[in-house]
Amino acid sequence: MATSATTDHVLAPAKPHSLLADYATLFKLRISTMVIITAGAGFYLGSLRSGISPFHAGFLQALIGIAVVTCGSSALNQALERKSDSLMRRTADRPMAAGRISLAHGLILGFAATFLGALYLAYTTNLLTGTLTLLTAIGYVAIYTPLKRVTTINTFIGAFPGALPPLIGWTAARGVIEWPGVALFAILFVWQFPHFMAIGWMYREDYARAGIRLTPNLPNARYAAQSTVVQALFYAVLMIPTSLWLSWFHITGLPYTIVATLLGLWYLYATIRFARILHGSNEADNTALARNLLKTSVLYLPLLMLAMILNAQGRLLF
Ligand code: HEM
Ligand SMILES: CC(C)=CCC/C(C)=C/CC/C(C)=C/COP(=O)(O)OP(=O)(O)O
């Protein structure tokens, strides 16, 4: 059933929700899964760097800890944004925005998961990893989330916590911050811009309704579209050399370099097609181009991670 807008808020659709389904939304299960995949890749590569198999209890402990903190911070993000979420079609049906999960419920769950998860990580992996994960959650919840209503720079700020999970995975395996871990951070950092420019553009009216500031919904529509496209293209071009940086540290070799270049060209191609929003006047066509870029971004990333893991593992075996 479609959602319907009123003058000051968007009504949630009247469909039943199980508590389990509401928790899945509260914990942003799909984004959190991607966070865990990237953290897992960091751990895997870090373990190989140490010359040990990644498949030991530490791998599971690190992923469980990171997953719990990620879910906790997603709940806290939704507690803070329950009002603005209720104003957007995309998010009006979220459990806290729609009032199915109370503020106290969300806050208790969010704080408990964030702090207990970070403590668990510090205890099972190392203090650096627990601290970095807690700082990531703070960056996401306490800095990025309130900034969304203040300045369009929020996306740049939010890209820092967004990019930290693979570095956290690396420190969980290695105990220290090292250049290959920084290279993984850089990959995630750069990846987010085309990803988010597509999303921001698709939902720009929704975001504007909720008072969230983004490049795609700047008051001058022409300038907003141009700036959105320029940023997406700049980072899509930068994505290729950034993804190849890992080979500089001999974590990966020629096979990864070839695959990463091809994947990067694919991501760039989707971004170049997205640039057609500057000339296309048909809103449905423009939305399809943005949705295609979003889809490409969420396929590109796990494929890139898979390529680096396979190549790094292969280098050890052959
Ligand atoms: C500034 C950074 C980011 C912003 C503002 C952002 C925002 C969003 C939003 C609003 C959506 C929902 C799109 C929709 O409902 O159609 C989304 C989708 C998604 N994001 Fe991001 N994101 C960012 C970074 C990340 C990071 C770091 C990851 C994981 C590593 C990630 C993974 C995903 C995935 C997997 C989806 C698709 C989920 C689905 O289909 O529901 N995003 N992102
Ligand atoms: C290890 C750990 C604590 C990781 C957490 C980092 C994390 C979840 C980053 C997500 C990146 C990000 C800024 C998403 C924006 O979503 P949004 O909140 O703006 O999206 P919305 O509009 O759907 O609420």
Automatic annotation (TrEMBL):
Alphabetized Pfam families for the sequence: UbiA
One Gene Ontology term of the molecular function aspect: protoheme IX farnesyltransferase activity
BP GO terms, sorted: heme O biosynthetic process
Location of the protein in the cell: Cell membrane; Membrane
Keyword Cell membrane: yes
Keyword Transmembrane attached: yes
Coiled coil: none
CDD domains: PT_UbiA_Cox10
Note: Carbon 2 of the heme B porphyrin ring is defined according to the Fischer nomenclature.
Family: Belongs to the UbiA prenyltransferase family. Protoheme IX farnesyltransferase subfamily.
Name of this chain's protein: Protoheme IX farnesyltransferase
Gene name, Swiss-Prot/TrEMBL: cyoE
